[in-house]
């Protein structure tokens, strides 16, 4: 849906950039990008889908 790879990162370390499958993004930045672009990074906009109702908070 957003193209973020779940690597176990959560709210307690959301500002940390871990590298790995999410590259140079922190979870905080990915969340901001999702709010603005609908994807964890603008380059993935064409590869994502809209969230289903049950996936929304």
Structural category is: mainly alpha
What proportion of the residues form beta strands (DSSP E)?
under 5%
Our count of helices gives 1
Estimate percent helicity. 10-25%
Largest sheet data: none
CA-based shape: globular
Number of strands: 0
Mean pLDDT: 92
Order of helices and strands: H
Terminal-residue CA separation = 14 Å
Rg over alpha carbons:
11 Å
Question: Spans of 5+ residues with little confidence (pLDDT < 50)?
Answer: none
Describe the structure.
The two termini are 14 Å apart. The radius of gyration is 11 Å and the shape is globular. 19% of the residues lie in helices and 0% in strands. The longest helix is centred in the middle third of the chain and has 11 residues, at 27-37. With 57 residues, it is an all-alpha fold. The protein has a domain at 20-55. It has one helix and no strands.
Task: Describe this structure in a few short sentences.
19% of the residues lie in helices and 0% in strands.
Q: How are the elements arranged and paired?
A:
Blueprint: H1 27-37
Which key phrases capture this entry?
57 residues, mainly alpha, 1 helix, globular
């Amino acid at each position: 849906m957003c193209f973020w790879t779940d690597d176990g990162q959560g709210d307690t370390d959301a500002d940390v950039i871990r590298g790995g499958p999410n590259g140079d993004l922190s979870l905080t930045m990915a969340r901001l990008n999702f709010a603005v672009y609908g994807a964890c990074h603008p380059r993935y906009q064409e590869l994502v889908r809209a969230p289903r109702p049950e996936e929304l908070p």
